[in-house]
């Protein structure tokens, strides 16, 4: 699966209804550009720091721009959201809050 992600030029995720999206995390891990639908879950998991598509023309514009090297997106701020250290901090806060109750 990692090989497939790494040979892709762009990852398109045109979902209209979605839960947490593992291809998004796999795309982050492979450092490939992504275009995704403008739906609530993608706003949440990208922390509103990611261009989200409203229609087919938006998808095509961004895919072409990424493929032609006209657009480069820095994923480092998003990767930090899903780092193991951030996960640990959130879990510790959660369990401390549960323990206090």
> How would the global form be characterised?
elongated
For the CA atoms, what is the radius of gyration? 16 Å
Strand line-up across the major sheet: 1-2-3
How many strand segments?
3
Main sheet makeup: 3 strands, parallel
**Helical stretch count?**
6
What is the H/E string?
HEHEHEHHH
Mean pLDDT, all residues: 87
Structural class: mainly alpha
Q: What percent of residues adopt helix (DSSP H or I)?
A: 55-70%
Poorly predicted tracts of residues: none
**Proportion of beta-strand residues:** 5-15%
Q: What distance separates the N and C termini?
A: 43 Å
Topology of this protein?
Elements: H1 2-7, E1 11-13, H2 22-30, E2 34-37, H3 40-45, E3 52-53, H4 56-67, H5 76-81, H6 84-100
Parallel strand pairs: 1-2, 2-3
Would you kindly provide a written description of the structure presented here, covering whatever features stand out?
This protein has about 100 residues and is mainly alpha-helical. About 55% of the residues lie in helices and about 10% in strands. It is built from six helices and three strands, in the order αβαβαβααα. The protein has a three-stranded parallel β-sheet. The chain starts with a helix and ends with a helix. The relative contact order is 0.14.
